[in-house]
Amino acid sequence: MALIPSRTKYRKQQKGRVKGKAQRGNTLAFGDFGMQSLERASITSAQIEAARVAVTRHLKRKGKVWIRIFPHKPITKKPLETRMGKGKGAVERWVAPVKPGTMLFEVGGVPLSLARAGLRLADTKLPCRCRFISREVE
């Protein structure tokens, strides 16, 4: 099942820029372990789903996985061999613009070794480098 918004105010968006580091969504909020991006990227809904499947399969349905990003930005594309003009193309896919420091996934209720291995598998599915974060145990 692909992640896409149920409804949006506008069908198409301009490209824009993703500048700076993540000010929000950059700390662990739900689980004990997380995966934090180290680069800026546009992560597609298919890549998010592939990473989620990799983590949940490795954890063998133990614990809980939180997805902290959502693809709310539409990317358009014109058909191949189409001349210039005639307006903006149709929406092809949805992406989540990610800044460095954004928490991508969180995992809870599993041991450290299992969480680290599962999130490493998810990291290979994504277009940006990520690091493993664990909550400081007090």
* Count of individual helical segments: 2
Helix share, percent: 10-25%
What would CATH call the class of one domain? Answer: Alpha Beta
- The share of residues in extended strands comes to 25-35%
Computed CA radius of gyration, to the nearest angstrom: 17 Å
Average of the residue pLDDT scores: 94
Main sheet makeup: 4 strands, antiparallel
Q: Segments where pLDDT lies below 50 for 5+ residues?
A: none
Strand order of the largest sheet: 3-6-1-7
The overall strand count is 7
- Determine the structural class based on helices, strands and strand pairing: alpha+beta
CATH topology category name of one domain: Aldehyde Oxidoreductase, domain 3
Q: Given the C-alpha coordinates, what overall shape results?
A: elongated
Q: First CA to last CA: what distance?
A: 39 Å
CATH homologous superfamily designation of one domain: Ribosomal protein L16/L10
CATH architecture of one domain: Alpha-Beta Complex
The helix/strand series, from N terminus to C terminus, equals: EEHEEEEHE
Task: Give a summary of the structure in a few sentences.
The chain has 138 residues and is of the alpha+beta class. It is 20% helix and 28% strand.
